[in-house]
Amino acid sequence: MTFENLLYAVEDGIATVTVNRPRALNALNEATLKELICCFAGIRDDDAVKVVILTGGGEKAFVAGADIAEMHALDAVKAGEFARLGHRMTAVIEDLSKPVIAAVNGFALGGGCELALSCDIRLASENARFGQPEVNLGVIPGFGGTQRLARLIGKGLASELLMTGDMIDAVEAHRVGLVNKIFPAAELLPGARKMAEKIVSKGQVAIGFVKRALRDGLETDLTRACAMEADLFGLCFATADQKEGMQAFLEKRPAKFTGK
Ligand code: CO8
């Protein structure tokens, strides 16, 4: 797949998607949103891709938000459409059965923070900065930030970030659970790749079920969520990966998963 505003590469089952508008700190304009939706739809349909790493081009930013230059002249109807396009982008990432690791290599602000929030795992470079500065512009987040941020770090901390527009650094983001690990800048992508390789080595049907159980289970009550988990657990026993995984354990050898 080739794009104007994205770089795309696949190696050993790991796709790397790079939002590549470094002169605008990788801000998301309409064209880039559409390309991200198209790119993740392609990944969904490509059996060769098992795990995705999402990062930003250049050394300064993951994504510094929606493109303010493009957004400032929108009317209410067009702004609503733009927000819905952003929701399509986050949905295609969340609905993907394959894990998406955000490698946050600088500013992740506004729509950029919301993009990272839609990923399964967030890793950060030491120079990463997170924030929802929309109130500085007289607007609120439009790509799910009010919802996903509060679900991840709690309502109190989310309220502070959303109402002050303050940025937090990687250490604080790690402390509050917004990122899983921090790396020196040069080690971020190798670190993300190492994690991706570990995930690729597992049974991919089970990985997809884990993602589905987390995504759907956290949106319902515990009783229903556990019932859904039991159904998915049962379904695992219809897969070759379950047979191979347990047989390999009993034979004291590494499992050779086929993703079936
Ligand atoms: N949109 C467009 N251009 C941007 C953006 C952006 N979000 N961020 C940076 N740029 C551009 C700058 O305009 C500048 O361009 P130029 O060189 O042509 O002047 C270039 O990138 C470099 O930026 P700076 O010179 O400002 O770099 P600094 O290191 O001085 O500052 C900052 C870096 C702090 C990241 C600063 O650029 C900044 O504050 N950017 C804006 C951050 C922001 O407010 N993001 C939130 C945007 S709103 C949003 O994301 C809402 C999402 C939901 C939308 C819902 C639909 C309606």
From TrEMBL:
One of the GO biological process terms: fatty acid beta-oxidation
Q: Which GO terms describe its molecular function?
A: hydro-lyase activity
Q: Which InterPro entries match?
A: ClpP/crotonase-like_dom_sf, Enoyl-CoA_hyd/isom_CS, Enoyl-CoA_hydra/iso, Enoyl-CoA_hydra_C
| Lyase keyword on record | yes
Q: Which domain of life is it from?
A: Bacteria
Q: Which Pfam families match?
A: ECH_1
Query: Which keywords does UniProt give here?
Result: Lyase
Please report which protein family the annotation says this sequence is part of: Belongs to the enoyl-CoA hydratase/isomerase family.
- This chain belongs to the protein called Crotonase
Species per Swiss-Prot/TrEMBL record: Geothermobacter hydrogeniphilus
Taxonomically, what lineage is the organism? Bacteria, Pseudomonadati, Thermodesulfobacteriota, Desulfuromonadia, Desulfuromonadales
